[in-house]
Amino acid sequence: MLQRMELSGGKVVPDGDNGNIYVYVNPDEAERKYLVGTLKLDEHTLASALDPDELARLEFEPDHTAVIFKRPRNYSSDDMFVFRVVSVGLFLFADRLIVVLSEDIPLFQGKQFTRITTLQEVALKIIYSSISHFVEHLRVVSAVSDALEEQINSSMENKYLLSLFSLEKSLVYYLNGINSNGKLIERLKNSAAKLKLTTGSIEFVDDMIIENQQCYEQAATYSNILASMMDARVSIVSNNLNWLIKTLTIITIAIMLPTLVVSIFSMNVEFPGKNHPWAFWLIIAIALSSTFVVRLVWRWKRW
To answer: Which residues, 6+ apart, have CB-to-CB distance to 79 below 8 Å?
Structure first.
């Protein structure tokens, strides 16, 4: 699917006819042939823009510059707490910018897409927006982790632990993606002259390096906390299960003792006081007393 945009008035606005920014969302076979055959995009680089496992990189072609970077994938309930990353391709020509991505996402939203004068700035702002999305997703991961921890404290089910394992795996994906983007941004800075970046754009790249490093450190912190506390959370689930088994055992004993008393006096044999008018109530009293004794022992032993 093709969406055409135009850089006008310092902003990126939709323009279906004369736009110089082409956004291809999961291009079909005909669109790929046009990109490779007419615009001379490298077929391998184009495939890399749609490959979620591809590393971020910068390549210089004779008539354009190719940039592959990572960004978080849109999360859905079917992902089962697994947050993944996808690749996005930017192909910068002298008169146009081509964006290739595998899913439809809002690219040109936010205050950073204002006061833009060149296509190079648009490309840099798109890469910067991925850093912001990583930060937002990390906040969501932290909130989900806190909610799962509360469930684990009172639950004996494995599904909450499995969800935490999924979050821990997601942070590994994020760390790899953020680190890969960091190396790409460093190379963008080193290739500033080749990319014809202005002084303001170079300063913006420096800010991107700082923001990406802070994002990486935040993801690393969350990952270390999840990894280091996982054994403790497993122990909590096991402890909850032990408490349940112990409680059920004590309840079983408390029920068995009065049952034993009643069973003894229900045998078809002679026993003292059988004909006493209060025999029934005495047996009931002894049965209830046995339960009361179990309760006293329970509190004395602090079970």
So the answer is: none
